[in-house]
Amino acid sequence: MKGLFNYIVVALKGFGMGAANVVPGVSGGTIALLTGIYTELIEALNALMIPATWKMVLQGKWKSFWKEIHGNFLLALLAGVGISIFSLAKLMEYVIVYHPVQTWAFFFGLIIASAVYMLLDIKDWKGKDILWALLGGVLGVTICTLSPTQTPDDLWFIFLCGAIAICTMILPGISGSFILVILGKYEFIMNALNTLNWPVLIVFAIGCVIGILAFAKFLHWLLGRYERQTMLVLVGFVLGSLVKVWPWNDMQAVYKAEFLHQGLSPDVAAEAAATLATGGVPLQEATGMMHIPGAILWAIAGIVLVVLLEVLSKKTPQA
Predict the structure, then answer these.
(1) H-assigned helices in the chain
(2) For residue 69, what are the domain limits?
(3) Would residue 41 count as lying in a domain?
(4) Same-domain status, 241 and 255
């Protein structure tokens, strides 16, 4: 019973990781660190990347293989993550459509606070450190401004998104769902989860598996050899990419939400919003749609959430 209870606890921690990975700005790796399972998670992932581990399967040593990869732990964790992601995806899709300014303001607060903590973790700054951070910032701004608003829905691109996002999901401070925002596929994947679009979900999952097996080992090598430079580039990248989550980055979505609240159907609201976004809208009318006070409050809420997580993580001893 004690063992079963422990795995239920692991599943609950996985639920927290899944919730974090659904929200751009909060890293699943941070939640793993906070709840004390990060070390075992990394050990399990590393075991899956060692050829000797898979030789056990060929030799029929199933029990040894399962123990080596922390099978019960991974199974409980993935169950919690899966339940969390599927249950929260509908909520995320709803708030982005009906409350885009407040939602992206919340994400903006989450991301900027996470970036500040990443900066604070880097001690004894030197001139070259600033250059590494600036390089990341320029890279983030460039990718976000040059990348098209609409990215392909083709399965090859969904596979690529999964492969890239999964590598950041295990890094404390870097949000995998934020990477999906940058790639223009966050809302698409949330919709696929809500509608159970299995071809998309399966291809995305395969991309995640291949991505973590192919890149996680390199990622850990990179952090082992060049941890400081890597983190500097990453934090610069996160700050530079904030242009992508600016609450008023997509005014067409803001207009559409207003028309939906007025009772228009989604199709009519989308058409009217597109007309306004193309032809512009009088300043006094647009100001009423921008929800600036609410955006400020939700951004502060995002910042407070990250601060609370950081304070708790400092009090949590790691195994």
Answers:
(1) 2-22, 28-34, 38-48, 51-58, 62-68, 71-98, 100-120, 127-146, 155-169, 176-182, 186-195, 198-240, 251-261, 266-279, 283-289, 292-315
(2) 2-248+299-315
(3) yes
(4) no
Q: Give the CB-side neighbour count of residue 142, counting CA atoms within 13 A.
A: 7
Asked whether residue 117 falls in the same domain as residue 209, the answer is yes
Q: Are residues 60 and 158 in the same domain?
A: yes
Cα–Cα distance measured from residue 195 to residue 187, given in angstroms and rounded to the nearest whole number: 12
Count Cβ atoms within 10 A of the Cβ of residue 287 and give its class: 0-12 exposed, 13-18 middle, 19 or more buried: exposed
Looking at the structure of the chain, the number of domains it has is 2
Domain annotation covers residue 294? no
- Read off the tokens for 145: 């401004």
What count of other Cβ atoms lies within 10 Å of the Cβ of residue 259?
A: 19
Co-location of 278 and 148 in the same domain: no
* 137 and 230 together in one domain: yes
pLDDT at 227 over 90: no
pLDDT tens sequence across 106-138: 888 887 887 887 788 788 888 888 899 899 888
d(CA 9, CA 6): 5
pLDDT 10s digits, 153-196: 899 999 999 988 887 766 666 677 878 888 888 889 988 988 88
d(CA 312, CA 319): 15
How far apart (Å, rounded) are the C-alpha atoms in residues 166 and 152? Answer: 19
Same domain, 180 and 271: no
